[in-house]
Amino acid sequence: MARATRCLWVACVSFLFFSACSGQERPEPEFYGMYLWTGDVQKYADDLAQLGVKWLNVGGWERNPSETDAAVLESARRGFHLVPRLFMAEISHDRTMPLNEALTKWRALVAGQVERYGQDGALWKEHPEVKPQPIRYWCIWNEPNIEFLSRLEGLERPVLYAKILLAASEEIRRRDPKAYLIAFNTAGGTPRTGGLNPDGMYERIRYVGWRKFIRDTVESAGTACFDGVATHPYTQPRSPEEGDVIGGLRMVRELAAEQKFADKGIWFTEVGFALEYPRNLNVRDERQQACFMTRLWAIAAAHGVVHIDPMFIEDIIYGPDNSRRSFGFFVKPGQWRQQAQATRVMSRLVPDPRKSPVIVSEEPSAVWAYRFLDWKGRELLMAWSAGETELVREFPVKGTVHTLVSMLGNASSLRTVDGRVTLTLCEAPVYVVQAGLEETKALIAFGSHRTTMPVLGGREWMAEVEKVCRVREGAGAGSDIRSAGWMAAVSRKLGVLDSQGHGPTPGSDEWVRAVHRKAFRAEP
């Protein structure tokens, strides 16, 4: 009898738990994101946690189910939100099959993903030890206006994609009526992508202009089957200003007004600036890569983009032509490029640049400046020169105490005269913050929970190091802070020692400074 009662109690608790999961509100997407593959979630989990990016657009979703399971569970533990990029390789890159067979297989694939990873998903029932974080956002295909979608039975790509989109919408919403579908994800998103007309059709290179593709798909499928409109507005090797990302957004909104989908949010689900790329379409160097990416974050937010997923978490070899494409935010786990550091700085200073942005200046090849709300809701100025020369400009600012922050997080006190600041602007954005120097440095290094800098090497500082180590799967735990064992564990986890175990003596000033740089991505 007791055993039966216990079984009934467990069943009731489980029912209530999963019923609560079914009723979860769909989370609102954060602005800062990342494009990666399923295996990268675990590989770069520590770096993503330090970076502060929690919304991840995931490719390669259907390739390795066990790897996908592991990525979803790791994300739930870490508080990451995954947005799968659903795709079926059997009808891409000239591979074909009969249309009805393809749609049947596609429906089964989509249904299976929602049933496993969505609300009440099988994965959560198999792992009751993990708090469910069901997937509610889904990207439907990748760049279907080019060879990533084959033509079946003579259908034009927009007509075929409309069938794919409608089928996905039916299967997903049958299981999760409040799911969010991100459609199109087009190759291109600016007025002259690669010199091609966005409203044109190019049979020889098998490219449907990105806006024509959206227009023709909506004519076939209507607007009820999607919630977000996504483009890939690459401009490289040009800057986002010269490449006219704003013009691309204007073109989307013109079409949205015409076809009555202006209520749909605009996403950039792939965009970036490569250090190596075929046909010399690469940016100058790592600094320019960071400048362009940081400027894109600001421009897109100021012009109403919901979310951006930069291409890519690491460098890739592109399979079809075996070319190297060095978009990576990270060279390898623990080794950051400047664009990663710059993104961390911006996201700490401006956690949500979509909130009440103000356009101050958008001068071609000259000064670009915006006002955003900082981490405490105060007005913050962000500015740079979009040209090739330095420019000196004055700006009015609020408040009496100000700090100047560089793109990579170096902070210095800034003097105001009659409520104005004078800035020397170059390609790298700078920020004018309404906060003192110590508060700003503490934010950049430790986060918004601190307003003062702890003494380097002191107990408070070590407690902050311990927090970082716990994020990195518990390094340092089990030993008393300040003990030799704790310092040794920190050295190993943060990579202060080289592969032979050589490095600064634990506890020394050199060790403290090295740990600070590794743990907080800031100069001590």
Describe the protein in words.
With 524 residues, the protein is an alpha/beta fold. It has three domains: 323 residues, Glycosidases (TIM Barrel, Alpha-Beta Barrel), CATH 3.20.20.80; 83 residues, Golgi alpha-mannosidase II (Immunoglobulin-like); 67 residues, no CATH class. 37% of the residues lie in helices and 19% in strands. It contains 15 helices and 22 strands. Strand 8, helix 9 and strand 9 form a beta-alpha-beta unit. Helix 5 packs parallel to helix 7 and helix 10 runs parallel beside helix 11. The longest helix has 21 residues. It starts with a helix and ends with a helix.
SSE arrangement:
Elements: H1 2-22, E1 33-37, H2 38-43, H3 45-51, E2 55-59, H4 65-78, E3 81-86, H5 99-117, H6 122-126, E4 137-140, H7 157-175, E5 180-187, E6 201-202, E7 207-208, H8 210-221, E8 228-232, H9 245-259, E9 265-271, H10 286-302, E10 307-310, E11 316-318, E12 323-325, E13 330-332, E14 335-336, H11 338-349, E15 358-362, E16 367-373, E17 379-385, E18 391-396, E19 402-405, E20 411-414, E21 420-425, E22 430-433, H12 437-446, H13 459-471, H14 484-494, H15 509-520
Parallel strand pairs: 1-2, 2-3, 3-4, 4-5, 5-8, 8-9, 9-10
Antiparallel strand pairs: 6-7, 11-12, 13-14, 15-16, 16-17, 17-22, 18-21, 19-20, 19-22
Helix pairs in contact: 5-7, 7-8, 8-9, 10-11
Could you list some keywords that capture this structure?
524 residues; Immunoglobulin-like; six-stranded antiparallel β-sheet; 15 helices; 37% helix
